[in-house]
Design the sequence.
């Protein structure tokens, strides 16, 4: 075991995602297994600033693997954006001798972690906890699989009512900068059109495909759109469709926050457990300031600055699959 890392704190930051608790559990129990002193920080960087830091043991994380949300709560902290704020936060770590931090969150949280490490030399590990899957260096993020499954369950129900009334449903799913939830849930529910920020939305193509399907008497029509689509989301699409094809019975459904909640899927519990374990191993082995991800089912480490800076691209295959399978 590394001589340096003896006291490790874990926090969850930014938007919550199902599986964060499983990750906290894995970090705490692995740290304890290796003889480290473990701490929890409440409400992300806010708790670090306000000294809301407490010791954790194996029992602190009992019976949480199946729970959505995060027992450490999460928040966004304005003060942490300032150097003075971070100085205050670091003083709270230092007075306890905390010499390693595991941050579970998205790219913003990782930017904060990177500053802790570059400005104050505190080794940090990032675990990708975000439903959007918008981080480079990992095939999965903690919470993504559960969010997709929640969206699929909801869209299946919408499809039943769309079918009963021969309606067109435009369903908006989460994803401010990334269309993965829309893509995965749209393909899994047989959506005719999937509109995502990574691909330019051509409204003429959407209208043409609806008209063509109408001619072929394809009655159930489903469009899944990511909230961050550059065209403006479900309401904007519906407005134009209603203007251009007024005879269609067009409805909008915005799934919203249900996608963040609920018990994590087995897949999310599994990757959270693996990543949490490897976060501690990584600290011990001196592999600091990296994000622990999973690529091709292998654990992969990506420097935090690269995980934040680089963008995942969506291969054109995915969009071709949507077109061919919806015909
Ligand atoms: P999500 O993907 O769910 O939005 P996130 O981690 O990207 O999660 P943010 O709100 O962007 O969420 O960031 C969470 C917190 O991380 C911020 O409130 C702030 O405290 C810290 N943070 C973000 N960016 C910076 C930055 N540039 N410098 C210092 N701290 C930052």
Sequence:
């Amino acid at each position: 075991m590394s001589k340096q890392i003896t006291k490790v704190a874990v926090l969850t930051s930014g938007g919550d995602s199902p599986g964060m608790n499983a990750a906290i559990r894995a970090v705490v129990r692995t740290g304890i297994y290796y003889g480290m002193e473990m701490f929890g920080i409440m409400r992300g960087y806010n708790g670090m600033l306000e000294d809301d830091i407490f010791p954790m043991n194996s029992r602190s994380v009992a019976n949480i693997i199946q729970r959505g949300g995060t027992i450490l709560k999460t928040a966004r902290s304005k003060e942490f954006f300032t150097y003075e704020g971070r100085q205050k936060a670091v003083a709270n770590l230092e007075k306890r001798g905390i010499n390693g931090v595991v941050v579970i969150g998205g790219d913003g949280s990782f930017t904060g972690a990177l500053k802790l490490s570059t400005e104050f030399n505190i080794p940090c590990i990032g675990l990708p906890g975000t439903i959007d899957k918008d981080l480079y260096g990992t095939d999965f993020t903690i919470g993504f699989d559960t969010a997709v499954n929640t969206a699929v369950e909801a869209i299946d129900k919408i499809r039943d009512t769309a079918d009963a009334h021969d309606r067109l449903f435009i369903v908006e799913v989460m994803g401010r900068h990334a269309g993965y939830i829309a893509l995965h849930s749209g393909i899994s529910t047989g959506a005719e059109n999937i509109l995502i920020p990574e691909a330019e939305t051509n409204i003429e193509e959407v209208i043409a495909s609806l008209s063509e399907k109408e001619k072929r008497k394809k009655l159930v029509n489903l469009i899944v759109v990511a909230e961050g689509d550059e065209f403006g989301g479900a309401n904007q699409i519906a407005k134009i469709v209603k203007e251009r094809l007024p005879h269609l019975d067009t409805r909008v459904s915005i799934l919203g926050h249900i996608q963040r909640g609920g018990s994590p899927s087995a897949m999310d519990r599994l990757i959270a457990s693996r990543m949490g374990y490897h976060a501690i191993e990584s600290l011990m082995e001196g592999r600091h300031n990296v994000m622990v991800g999973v690529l091709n089912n292998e654990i992969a480490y990506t420097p935090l600055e690269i995980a934040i800076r680089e963008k995942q691209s969506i291969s054109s295959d995915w969009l071709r699959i949507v077109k061919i399978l919806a015909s």
Residues 13-15, 45, 76-77, 80-81, 105-109, 111-112, 115, 130, 132 surround adenosine-5'-triphosphate (CB under 6 Å).
